[in-house]
Design brief:
The chain is mainly alpha-helical. Among the domains are: about 240 residues, no CATH class; about 45 residues; about 40 residues. Helices cover about 70% and strands about 5% of the residues. It contains 30 helices and 7 strands. A 3-stranded antiparallel sheet has the order 1-2-3. A hairpin with a 2-residue loop joins β2 and β3. α6 packs antiparallel against α8 and α22 crosses α23. The longest helix is centred in the first third of the chain and has 32 residues. It is an enzyme of class 7 (translocase).
Length: about 700
């Protein structure tokens, strides 16, 4: 048994033990088992990644009982899973440079989320169940990223869907949490239908579900056609678009994105895990894994670029008007995923994976930092009731500040022969913007630049509303509850506090004209315990250094080619062109970042009354953004209400009025009427029974005599 087996299966074992043990041994035992297994998996993952970085890959240089694969890496067999005719599905764990990146991302963030949850969920009565779900989620994601065939990938794909349903609906006593979990599950099933059709079509065309075999044969299918929906289409275009539909659902791209903000109903650590390192990155990973297929279809790449850029723009516009701190970060995630997809669409798969890598650190940092703020403010999530918190929770403030510097892309571009240096997002996001220009995708380039401005604006807006200005705590019902009941800082009934916070979404008039009194109301915010602060500090290191330290392996022409070694379709020519773009292109993202910072500073520090005046002046545009482009209302009108109407029709007219009436209910009615008639004959009087016997005897004698 090799290290990769321990990395993948330790979280599963921990989930089973924690789930079965539940509260039998208290809450500490399940937490120790699950958290310890993840830190062990993390400790085993980093050496694999570092060995690929240094070129020491494969079983010859590492002690693994595995089979080497071309280009570097190995496949660790587990067992033969299925045999059906000519199709053989082996359960095997593929380890190459792409897998190594995901192993580090998934195990590192998950381990820190587990540790953080020790403090955040300390008053939750169902801690064993929560930690079991976290570990199960991690196992499913690890199965996905180590898959060597499409069926195994689909197993992990559905596994993270199941685990996300359990985690989003963790507070199952809350109707809103149940609704959000069901919504995530249903929307992802739409995407999964496309993914399944893509897998079926791929097996039909290639005769195998083995990923390396498929990717090796993909160039031979260039120009071929396949029958689909009664017409002939390019084979690779059909297959890639079907696979991409699955990626759209899992990674919350425009059209199948509506589940993502509602997933905030789950506990904050769940948000960090789902939106930073696991479920939402599965689609990006899948597209990069299958990149040799996508390279055979210019149409598919064009669709990926368009959808990614559109999602990037849409989510950024919505993030500028939200007041819930977690929803701002959630839409930020949606927008950053759009960056990753349009990077893949222009052929810069290395840049897409680089942004996935850096994003995991600074987005997990921002989510967990938001959780620390919510913890300090007695579960209040509305930024309108924050303000002036930087002196009260200084560690949380500084870590979130570094996370903001990372996501907004603060850094010094390399334009005068100097080496570019900056925070994590500066290296990865700027690489995407420059690659889109170098690839000739000018529309995507300008969208990327404008979204960089919006990203800077809503990120600094969050910082200024939360940590600067005068305290506005007095207007918060949560703070008033804390002060009046003298509970202050405890996590009393998580499912009745944080979950309820998301139930009271403010209306447009409340935001524009609502009075938010200044003052503290006598409340004293508190810094989080060390088990919550340690993960924040460690993630801060990733947000600061991950871009500068690792950019060479991901996007440098020669170093990138040496690192990836065929794991993705690495375009060395594009990477050369990306580094040779004009100076104004390299400065564009930095200028956009500074513009967004200046606008946010002017609107929320210099003139705090300006946002309300601006929103009133452009009310239709403001409402369009505040209501998330009315996607929920549109889907409710087009799909939800008709589905309920059809369901009621079949229920009332079909099931009750037809099937039940003439089926089981009808038969029961006949039996009931028959029993009523029989009961009338059973009077209980002896003379009645004697009279009936006499009638029977008389009838029998009459029949005999008549014969």
């Amino acid at each position: 048994m090799s290290a990769i087996h321990f990395i993948v299966f330790l979280p599963l074992l921990a989930a089973v033990v924690a789930g079965l043990a539940n509260k039998s041994f208290g809450s500490t035992f399940p937490k120790v088992i699950t958290t310890g297994s993840l830190f062990i998996a993390c400790a085993l993952s980093w050496p694999i990644f570092l060995h690929f970085l240094t070129g020491n890959f494969g079983p010859d240089t590492m002690v693994y009982d595995a089979n080497a694969i071309p280009g570097g890496g190995w496949v660790a067999p587990v067992f033969t899973w299925m045999l059906s005719g000519s199709m053989q599905v082996d359960w095997a764990l593929r380890v190459d440079s792409l897998t190594a990146v995901m192993l580090v991302v998934v195990t590192s963030v998950s381990a820190l989320v587990h540790l953080y949850s020790w403090g955040y969920m300390s008053e939750e009565p169902d801690q064993p169940r929560f930690f079991a779900y976290l570990s199960l989620f991690t196992f499913a994601m690890l199965m996905l990223v180590t898959a060597n065939n499409l069926v195994q990938m689909f197993f992990g794909w559905e596994g993270v869907g199941l685990a996300s349903y359990l985690l989003i609906g963790f507070w199952f006593r809350k109707p809103s949490a149940n609704a959000a979990a069901i919504k995530a599950f249903v929307v992802n099933r739409v995407g999964d239908l496309g993914f399944m059709l893509g897998i079926f079509g791929t097996f039909l065309v290639f005769g195998t579900i083995d990923i390396p075999t498929i990717l090796a044969a993909a160039p031979n299918m260039h120009g071929s056609t396949i029958g689909f929906l009664g017409h002939r289409f390019d084979t690779m275009t059909v297959l890639c678009l079907l696979l991409f539909v699955g990626a759209m659902g899992k990674s919350a791209q425009l059209g199948l994105h509506t589940w993502l903000p509602d997933a905030m109903e789950g506990p904050t650590p769940v948000s960090a895990l789902i939106h930073a390192a696991t479920m939402v990155t599965a689609g990006v990973f899948m597209v990069c894994r299958m990149s040799p297929m996508f390279e055979q279809s210019a149409v598919a790449l064009g669709v990926v670029t368009f959808v990614g850029a559109a999602t990037c723009f849409f989510a950024a516009t919505v993030g500028t008007t939200q007041t819930d701190i977690k929803r701002v970060i959630a839409y930020s995630t949606c927008s950053q995923l759009g960056y990753m997809f349009f990077a893949a669409g222009v052929g810069a798969y290395g840049a897409a994976m680089f942004h996935l890598f850096t994003h995991a650190f600074f987005k997990a940092l921002l989510f967990l930092g938001a959780g620390s703020v919510i913890h300090a403010m007695h579960h209040e999530q509305d930024m309108r009731f924050y303000g002036g918190l930087r002196k009260h929770i200084p560690v949380t403030f500084w870590t979130m500040l570094f996370g903001t510097l990372a996501i907004t892309g603060v850094g010094i571009p390399g334009i005068f022969g100097n080496t570019a240096f900056g925070f994590a997002g500066f290296h990865s996001k700027d690489a995407i913007i420059e690659a889109s220009y170098a690839a000739g995708q000018t529309s995507a380039f300008w969208v990327g630049v404008f979204v960089a401005l919006l990203t800077s604006f809503y990120s600094w807006r969050l910082v200024f509303l939360t940590f600067y200005g005068k305290p506005r705590w007095a207007g918060s019902e949560h703070i008033q509850h804390a002060v009046h009941d003298h509970h202050g800082h405890g996590h009393d009934d998580h499912h009745d506090s944080e979950a309820e916070a998301s139930d009271h979404a403010p209306t447009a008039d409340e935001i524009l004209h609502g009075h938010h009194p200044e003052g503290t109301a006598g409340y004293h915010p508190h810094e989080s315990p060390w088990v919550m602060l340690v993960p924040l500090v460690l993630l801060t290191l990733g947000a600061i250094f991950a871009g500068f330290v690792f950019h060479g392996a991901f996007i440098e022409p020669s170093a990138g080619e040496s690192y990836w070694r065929g794991a993705i379709a690495f375009n060395e020519h594009l990477m050369h062109a990306m580094h040779e773009v004009p100076v104004w292109v390299k400065l564009s993202a930095t200028f956009a970042m500074l513009s967004g910072l200046a606008i946010a500073y002017g609107a929320y520090i210099v003139s705090p009354s300006f946002p309300a005046k601006f929103a009133e002046a452009f009310r239709p545009l403001y409402l369009f953004s505040l209501n998330k482009w009315y996607f929920d209302e549109l889907y409710n009108f087009l799909f939800v209400r008709p589905a309920f109407a059809i369901g009621r029709l079949f229920w009332k007219k079909g099931d009750e009025a037809t099937i039940d009436r003439f089926g089981p209910n009808g038969a029961a009615k006949v039996v009931q009427l028959g029993s009523f008639g029989a009961a009338r004959l059973q009077s209980g009087y002896v003379y009645a029974y004697a009279f009936i016997m006499l009638i029977g005897l008389t009838a029998a004698l009459t029949w005999v005599i008549a014969r």
